[in-house]
Design the sequence.
C-alpha cells in the first residue's frame, strides 16, 4: 500500500493559499452577490404573491365564504434558483478556470513544482492532490453560496423551505461541485501542459466560450419554442397531439439542435439541476424518483465528464521543460 | 543503501532531444562528504545534469546513482536522500517561512517535522522570519528559506543550482559558511556555479562542462598543484572552455 499522505498535505496547502488569495475571495463574493441579487428579487415577488393570497384568504373568511371559491396556489421557492444556477454556469465557470490556472502557475513560476517533484512521492500524487484541492475549493465556495441561498429562501419567500427542498439543494450543490471541478481541471491541465501558462489560460477561455456559451446558445436559438415568450405552441394554443405531429416533421432538425446542446457539459448540468429544483415547468412539484429516472443520463454525463477530465490530467506526465527557471 | 558507494555516480548518462545532445555521455564519481563545484558556460548542461540526478528529467541513456540509490529503479528512495535548491526559487508567497518549511517537511515524511523545522530555522539564523510571509522577503532571505527547505529532511546529498545568483557579497559569504557547516556534518554538496572564487574557497573537487561534455574533473588540490594557487581556477577554466563561451 503506497503512502498517500502527500495528497492531503498538498491539498491542504492549496486550501490555505486559496483562503489568502484576494482574487479568489473577491470572485467568490461577486458570485455570491450575483446569485443573491437574482434570488432576492425573486423572493420579494414571491413574498408579495404569498401576501396577496393570504389577504384574499382572510377576506373570504371574514365574509364567511368557503376557501374553495379561490384556487389554492402552489408556491415553489426553489424555482427562484434559476438565476443562481445560470450564474454558476457562466461566472462560476470563469472563476473555476482562473483558479485552475492559478493552481498551476503558482507551482511553475515559483519553482515549487521542482521542489515537490524531488520529494518522495509519485508525480500522479501531486496531480491528484492539486485536483482534489481544486474540487475542495469549489465545494467550499459553492457550499457558502447554497447555504446563503437556503437562508434567503427560508426567510425571504414567505413560505419557508422543507427538508425535501434542502435535499434538492444538496443534490444541486453536488452537481455544481462536479461541474466546476471539471472546469477547474481544464484550467489546471492546460496551464500545466502548455509551454506558457498564459497560453493555457487562453485556450481554456476559448473552450469555455465554446462549451459554456456558444453550444448551449446555438441550441437555444435553434429551438423554435424559444422564439416566442411562453413558447410558440402555447401562444398558438396548439393541442399536444398536434404539437407531436408537427415536431415529427422536424425530427432531423431537432436531432441536430439537441446534438449541439448535449455536446456541452453546461447543458447537461443545467438540464439536471433545472429538473431537480423544479425550475423546468414539467418537473415542478415532481418527486425526486421520477426526476432521477428521467435525468440520470445528464447526471452520468456530468460525473463521467468530470472523472474523465481528472483522469486525463492524472495520466499525462509532467514534462521537464515545464520546470523552467522563469515563466 | 551502501555507504561505501560514491555519493553520486554516473556512467554514460546522456540526454538528447532529437538531433541535439544536451548532455554527452557523462562518467562522474563524487565521493561522500565532498563539495563538488560544477562549472560551465550558460547552456553547457549544468542545470540539465542536476535535473537528471534529482529525477526531474528522464535520461536518454546511461545509468546513475545518488546516495547508493539507482536513478532508474529506486526513484522514491533517491528522492528521500536528496535535497534540491533550484535557481531563483520563490516558494509560496502567501505562506510564512514556518508554513513553507512545515509543508516541505511533511512532504518529506519526516517524523519530527515540527521540531526539525524549528531546528533548521535556528541553524540558518532565520527564526526571526518564521512568522513572516515570503512575499515581503529579499532575494537573500528567500535563498536562506530555500536552503532550509532543501535540508529540512536531513538529505545525504544536496544539489544547489547557482545558489549565489543574485546574492550580495554578505549573502555569498553567509551561504559559504552554511555550506561548510553542512559539509562538516557529512553532507555531500553538488553545486552548479559561475563564481570561480567560491569554487576555489569552498569546493573539494570540481568539474567543468562545455557543450554538454565533461572536459575536466579533479580535486581542488590537483588544480592548485598544476596551475598554482593564485587564480588557478580561472587559468583552468580558460584553458578548457573556448574563448567564445567565456566571453558569452
Sequence:
Amino acid at each position: 500500500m503506497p503512502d498517500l499522505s502527500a495528497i492531503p498535505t498538498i491539498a491542504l496547502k492549496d486550501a490555505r493559499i486559496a483562503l489568502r488569495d484576494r482574487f479568489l475571495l473577491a470572485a467568490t463574493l461577486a458570485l455570491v452577490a450575483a446569485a443573491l441579487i437574482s434570488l432576492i428579487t425573486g423572493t420579494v415577488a414571491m413574498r408579495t404573491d404569498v401576501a396577496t393570497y393570504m389577504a384574499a384568504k382572510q377576506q373570504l373568511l371574514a365574509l364567511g365564504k368557503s376557501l374553495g371559491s379561490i384556487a389554492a396556489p402552489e408556491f415553489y421557492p426553489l424555482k427562484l434558483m434559476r438565476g443562481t444556477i445560470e450564474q454558476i454556469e457562466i461566472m462560476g465557470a470563469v472563476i473555476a478556470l482562473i483558479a485552475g490556472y492559478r493552481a498551476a502557475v503558482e507551482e511553475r513560476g515559483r519553482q515549487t513544482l521542482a521542489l515537490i517533484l524531488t520529494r518522495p512521492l509519485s508525480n500522479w500524487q501531486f496531480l491528484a492532490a492539486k485536483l482534489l484541492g481544486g474540487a475542495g475549493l469549489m465545494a467550499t465556495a459553492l457550499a457558502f453560496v447554497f447555504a446563503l441561498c437556503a437562508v434567503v429562501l427560508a426567510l425571504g419567500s414567505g413560505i419557508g423551505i422543507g427538508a425535501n427542498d434542502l435535499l434538492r439543494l444538496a443534490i444541486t450543490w453536488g452537481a455544481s461541485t462536479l461541474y466546476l471541478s471539471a472546469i477547474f481541471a481544464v484550467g489546471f491541465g492546460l496551464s500545466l501542459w502548455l509551454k506558457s501558462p498564459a497560453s493555457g489560460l487562453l485556450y481554456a477561455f476559448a473552450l469555455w466560450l465554446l462549451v459554456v456559451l456558444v453550444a448551449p446558445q446555438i441550441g437555444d436559438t435553434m429551438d423554435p419554442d424559444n422564439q416566442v415568450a411562453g413558447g410558440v405552441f402555447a401562444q398558438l394554443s396548439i393541442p399536444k397531439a398536434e404539437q407531436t405531429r408537427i415536431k415529427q416533421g422536424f425530427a432531423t432538425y431537432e436531432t441536430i439542435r439537441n446534438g449541439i446542446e448535449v455536446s456541452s457539459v453546461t447543458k447537461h448540468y443545467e438540464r439536471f439541476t433545472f429538473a431537480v429544483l423544479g425550475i423546468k415547468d414539467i418537473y415542478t412539484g415532481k418527486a425526486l424518483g421520477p426526476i432521477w429516472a428521467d435525468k440520470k443520463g445528464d447526471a452520468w454525463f456530468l460525473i463521467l465528464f468530470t472523472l474523465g477530465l481528472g483522469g486525463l490530467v492524472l495520466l499525462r506526465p509532467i514534462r521537464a521543460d515545464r520546470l523552467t527557471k522563469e515563466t | 543503501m551502501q555507504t561505501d558507494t560514491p555519493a553520486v555516480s554516473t556512467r554514460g548518462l546522456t540526454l538528447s532531444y532529437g538531433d541535439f545532445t544536451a548532455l554527452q555521455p557523462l562518467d562522474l564519481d563524487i565521493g561522500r562528504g565532498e563539495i563538488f563545484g560544477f562549472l560551465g558556460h550558460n547552456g553547457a548542461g549544468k542545470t540539465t545534469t542536476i535535473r537528471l540526478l534529482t529525477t526531474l528529467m528522464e535520461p536518454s541513456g546511461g545509468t546513475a546513482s545518488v546516495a547508493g540509490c539507482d536513478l532508474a529503479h529506486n526513484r522514491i528512495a533517491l528522492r528521500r536522500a536528496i535535497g534540491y535548491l533550484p535557481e531563483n526559487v520563490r516558494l509560496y508567497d502567501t505562506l510564512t517561512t514556518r508554513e513553507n518549511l512545515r509543508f516541505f517537511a511533511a512532504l518529506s515524511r519526516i517524523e519530527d517535522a515540527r521540531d526539525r523545522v524549528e531546528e533548521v530555522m535556528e541553524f540558518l539564523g532565520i527564526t526571526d522570519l518564521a512568522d513572516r510571509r515570503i512575499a515581503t522577503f529579499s532575494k537573500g532571505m528567500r535563498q536562506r528559506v530555500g536552503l532550509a527547505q532543501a535540508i529540512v529532511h536531513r538529505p545525504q546529498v544536496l544539489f544547489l543550482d547557482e545558489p549565489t545568483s543574485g546574492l550580495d557579497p554578505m549573502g555569498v559569504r553567509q551561504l559559504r559558511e552554511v555550506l561548510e557547516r553542512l559539509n562538516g556534518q557529512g553532507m555531500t554538496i553538488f553545486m552548479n556555479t559561475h563564481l570561480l572564487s567560491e569554487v576555489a574557497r569552498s569546493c573539494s573537487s570540481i568539474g567543468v562542462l562545455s557543450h554538454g561534455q565533461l572536459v575536466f574533473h579533479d580535486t581542488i588540490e590537483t588544480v592548485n598543484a598544476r596551475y598554482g594557487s593564485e587564480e588557478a581556477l580561472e587559468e583552468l577554466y580558460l584553458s578548457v572552455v573556448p574563448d567564445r563561451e567565456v566571453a558569452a
